Amino acid sequence: MYRAIVTVGLALMCSLFAAIASGQAALAPGYSNLGYALPEPGSYRLPPLGPAADGEVIESDGSAVTLHQLFGDRYVLLSFMYSSCSDVNGCPLTSYVFYQLKKAMATDPTLAENLRLVSLSFDPQQDTPEVMQLYANNFRPQQGGGRWRFATTGSERQLHPILSAYAQDVQRKLAVDGSTSTDFFHVLRVFLIDPKRRVRNIYSVSFLHSDLIIADLNTLLLEEAADQQELHQRRVASAAAGADPTAGVPATAGPGDRKAGYEDADYATRSLALQNRLGKPVDLIEFARSAPLGLPALRMPAGLNLSRDSIALGRKLFYDRRLSLNDTFSCAMCHIPEQGFASNELATAVGIEGRSVRRNAPSLYNVGYATRLFHDGREDQLAQQVWSPLLARNEMGNPSIGYVVNKIKRLPDYAGLFETAFDGAAPGMQTIGNALAAYQLTLNAADSPFDRWYFGGKQDAVSAQAKAGFELFRGKAGCAGCHLVEQSHALFSDYRMHNTGLGYLSSRVDDSATQTVQLAPGVFVEVEKILLARVSEPVMADLGLYEITENPADRWKFRTPTLRNVALSAPYMHDGSLGTLREVIEFYRDGGIDNALLDPLLQPLDLNEAEIESLLAFLLALTGSNVPALVADAFAAPVGDLRQDDPHWAHELPADAP
């Protein structure tokens, strides 16, 4: 049978090339020159058409994988085909166009690096993995880069949900006597999918052409480059000069080792040099006493003595890993200064010993203005808030307040510091909380380009596009309904609780039997969830404010975050599920996730691509000018590690202890 399939495949290709040469067949445009000039890449947009579904498939080498694993982390062309198709403008057309693209990859490194080709059979009965492997051999050029992968499924039952998700109507033909044949009725549709698993274009017979696909890919690459510019915006502020206290500080903002592309076997590390991570202390109290342009005067919490001594003590505590149960974890390991005092590398936080936390680590910039703290709004005072992560088993893991207090009292390098900062008061629940609060009250970042324009009157401080974005923000898009802008200042949050639908979405039951686990770059395995349950805690649904009030009307409500310095604190939302600001804008453009308790302020928005770009430009203009100073000061802070003179059981072990 396998030899027959190969023979049929070769025969089809031979007849195809013969038809092209003779001009006798009514061939699709994909077989010839395009015949018209394409628009310049980047001069048009390809808005997302919807999610690209996943499903269980079998690669031609027999490996059981998922579609998303085949996709990797780059752009994908996905076609549905069957090996015995005899319609020259059907599956053979797809194979011909894919073959042209594969050949182009040999001379175009950008194409080879960024495009994956995937052909999935919808005839699992005939197209076994062995058949798909033999069929694939017909289309392999002798040399060249790029990837073209062939796959099938184990059964019709496994195939059906994939076809349904991609709206592929496939029906087997019937012979005159009513028996089934080996041919199918189907409509050719090829899907261009981006790295975020979104369909960006669908090509039919009339539009499937290698030149058009390459132009579309280049357009998407230009869009991706613009998004990357957004994510790297944090580096722009580091290019300071003159009297700025951060002059000469290297551009070290962002993760030290970016993991973009880690899903692909070709991943290469891009680590930043540690020696460039230089610090420079600044007088932090000035950022609390005199708020940067765009922020109101800071109200001091009752009973808190804000001084240079209390700030320095809080700063020391914030970066001290000894405040965790096992002396390995500090506040700064979730709220990373160069990552917006958030965590760009994790959607949800991870505590000591790798323990999972359900929620994203929020940015601490301007946290002193927040009237509600935590995503669920359960605290309203910084001095009280600090005890929640200190005592949470999956964060810093301490067993009690007294344990933390007594531990700090025994550390020699804290001797006298609390008494100096708090008028003779020793370490205790209140003074520890006040010290950490004092440091956080100085993390005020504003005087952004927007502030210098809107509150400072400098018309050239922002672009015309950013100004247009602000008009949309407070007008058509309705963002200012929750992200408040006052006449003399802007906190960009109402600090109220809203249901956007994301919590509702994550509470839906996932009844799949397996979960994809990545072991290394480009290496994925499917693990049964029953096995994972034996070594991990179950992921609990996040009900937001309801978990505090137990009022059913509060289900899935979360606190409105501030938008100041928002370009620095990706990923976004309470669960870190949206990776870029563009995704956030598109989420609200679509009206959130519908549910019975959805906030009535959320409505679908009729925003075009130009308006989305304007909103994005506005959000990028909200990064404070003093961010580099705050990061440089953090780099200069002492990191508290277990020391030889610290009282600890490890120092009491005999020298020959195992």
Condensed summary:
With 658 residues, the chain is of the alpha+beta class. Helices cover 32% and strands 10% of the residues.
How are the SSEs ordered, and which strands pair?
Layout: H1 2-22, E1 50-51, E2 56-59, E3 64-66, H2 67-71, E4 75-81, H3 91-105, H4 109-114, E5 115-121, H5 129-137, E6 147-152, H6 156-165, E7 170-174, E8 180-186, E9 190-193, E10 198-203, H7 210-231, H8 233-236, H9 285-289, H10 308-318, H11 382-385, H12 387-391, H13 401-410, H14 417-421, H15 429-440, H16 449-454, H17 464-474, E11 497-498, H18 502-506, E12 514-520, E13 523-528, H19 529-535, H20 546-549, E14 558-559, H21 581-589, H22 609-620, H23 627-636
Parallel strand pairs: 4-5, 5-6
Antiparallel strand pairs: 1-10, 2-3, 2-6, 4-9, 7-8, 9-10, 11-14, 12-13
Description of the molecule:
- By secondary structure, this protein is α+β, with helices and mostly antiparallel strands.
- It folds into 3 domains: 2-34 and 42-228, Glutaredoxin, CATH 3.40.30.10; 281-447 and 627-649, Cytochrome c-like domain (Cytochrome Bc1 Complex, Chain D, domain 2), CATH 1.10.760; 452-507 and 542-620, Orthogonal Bundle (Cytochrome Bc1 Complex, Chain D, domain 2).
- It is built from 23 helices and 14 strands.
- The chain has helices at residues 2-22, 67-71, 91-105, 109-114, 129-137, 156-165, 210-231, 233-236, 285-289, 308-318, 382-385, 387-391, 401-410, 417-421, 429-440, 449-454, 464-474, 502-506, 529-535, 546-549, 581-589, 609-620, 627-636, and strands spanning 50-51, 56-59, 64-66, 75-81, 115-121, 147-152, 170-174, 180-186, 190-193, 198-203, 497-498, 514-520, 523-528, 558-559.
- Helix 1 runs parallel beside helix 5 (129-137), helix 10 crosses helix 15 (429-440) and helix 21 (581-589) packs across helix 22.
- The longest helix is centred in the middle third of the chain and has 22 residues, at 210-231.
- It is globular, with a radius of gyration of 29 Å.
